[in-house]
Amino acid sequence: MEVIPISKLQYTFKTDTLFKMLFVKHPDLLKKLVSALLGIPLESIEQFIIRNEEIAPENLGDKFCRLDINMVVNGQLVDLEVQVADEGDYPERVMLYWAREFSSALPSGQGYSMLPRTVIISIIDFPLFDCMEFHSFFQPLEVTRHTLLSDKMGFHFFELKKLPKEVTEDNALLLWLSLFNANTEEDLEKIKKMEVPTMNQAINAYYTITASSEFREIERLREKARHDEAQALYHAEQRGIAKGKIEGKMEGKQEGIAERNLEIARNLLAMDMPLDQIVKATGLTQKEIEVLR
Length: 293
What we know:
Elements: H1 16-25, H2 27-38, E1 48-50, E2 69-73, E3 76-83, H3 90-103, E4 118-124, E5 135-138, E6 153-159, H4 172-181, H5 185-192, H6 197-210, H7 213-270, H8 275-282, H9 286-292
Parallel strand pairs: 3-4, 4-6
Antiparallel strand pairs: 1-2, 2-3, 5-6
């Protein structure tokens, strides 16, 4: 039986630099993606503004650099991010992002009612919640009556690991998420064969972006930053191990000296030597010698 080789993608839609560059350069695709993620008709989106189009090369080395896409959609703030690695405390992290966006959105001199609805959308490549559903949406509710406190807070989580294996061409949301979940050329080809114009447009944009020198340079800087951070963590860990060994040896030596001094003090006490002379001979305090006595 012939084994067909699998062509693993060097970059995927989950690659943060590719994600940011592709959808900033193709806002029509981004608009369709947001329509599917928010579950609203495309034709209902009258206002659509990308607030952070730039990718600053000098920030790519920053450990906390986020290549998210921040938008205004029909008056509401929408932040879209892809997260590949589970670094822990992810819900708390997105709540912090929401708080920063929401708290800085109030125009000077305006009342609190002018604060915009603020929504964080996370496409994540790891299981987060103990459920079968791939999509979870959170808003602040009263715990027994389930009364909505405010519609100005919202969190969407899309867990790629929970996507169904079969996707049909009429399900825009699953098609988009399948693009993000694609890891091989075969995965992209399978989607392309469905002949959905928007998906083919996104796949063509993917190949155009990944072949560009602009993307390759940005990804090189991003990869160098990841490598430098990994090296720094490794060396810090090695220094910590070495320091621990040295401190362990010193502690062991000190413990040995202390035990020896205690033994000397016991012997001198047995010889009825005066207390002040035992203190001078052992370095122990008078109180420590009294305890031994």
